[in-house]
Hints:
The structure is a single chain. Helix 2 (67-78) runs parallel beside helix 8, helix 4 crosses helix 5 (123-141) and helix 7 (186-196) runs parallel beside helix 8 (210-225). The longest helix has 39 residues, at 3-41. The strands form two sheets. Strands 2, 3, 4, 7 and 8 form a five-stranded parallel beta sheet that branches. Strands 1-6-5 form a three-stranded parallel beta sheet. Helices cover 51% and strands 11% of the residues. It has a domain at 52-238: Alpha-Beta Barrel (TIM Barrel). The chain has helices at 3-41, 67-78, 88-93, 95-103, 123-141, 157-167, 186-196, 210-225, 233-238, 246-254, and strands spanning 44-45, 54-60, 83-86, 107-110, 147-148, 170-172, 202-206, 229-231. By secondary structure, the protein is α/β, with parallel strands linked by helices.
Amino acid sequence: xxxxxxxxxxxxxxxxxxxxxxxxxxxxxxxxxxxxxxxxxxxxxxxxxxxxxxxxxxxxxxxxxxxxxxxxxxxxxxxxxxxxxxxxxxxxxxxxxxxxxxxxxxxxxxxxxxxxxxxxxxxxxxxxxxxxxxxxxxxxxxxxxxxxxxxxxxxxxxxxxxxxxxxxxxxxxxxxxxxxxxxxxxxxxxxxxxxxxxxxxxxxxxxxxxxxxxxxxxxxxxxxxxxxxxxxxxxxxxxxxxxxxxxxxxxxxxxxxxxxxxxxxxxxxxxxx
Length: 273
């Protein structure tokens, strides 16, 4: 064998060895990304994929001394359970209202002590906001919250992780926003909610604006007429079902539908109930 062929053979062998050494590293990258995605999906929710017409109504920034009790009366009349993301300062001032909401089966979540922008704060500042509100809710209701909604929805990915690790909170955002804080009027608030809500929606509103409270009776009636069922955010999360992968969806589309029975099936409400 010539010297040139020996050199070429050695070079090919070295390249092959290098490729074998790098392959396992490349193969692990998608796995890591997949784990990160799964971890993030278990921490933050703006919508929940559910098998049924279930939605969660959420109310921020209270309790209000006059408006929140009125809303609680409306919820009771409609037999609806909602989730309240409360401000710690307001809880300290009106703890009896928070206690009533919890006693009547509503869920209480942490919405900070004084409504700052978490995304622009130090870890110690955020921690103080969260802890003080956590303590106030525990004092008012006897239980610590398990949900956090950051003011303005502003929170960094790193903050989400350490807040989840230290407090056990799930971070709750939303997918329906009627912009009721702009006070557009009850009919606009209602129509925006009706237009955007779908099964699995987390609906954002505020129980500190009179127009929002005035909008709720007809909003609840219209949502119920469309077949929606109301649950708390934690209940909605527990109902989550995996979303079909694109591959499985393509398989279903390419598979011929089975022959239909000659006997008509009874009508079914959304969600199989």
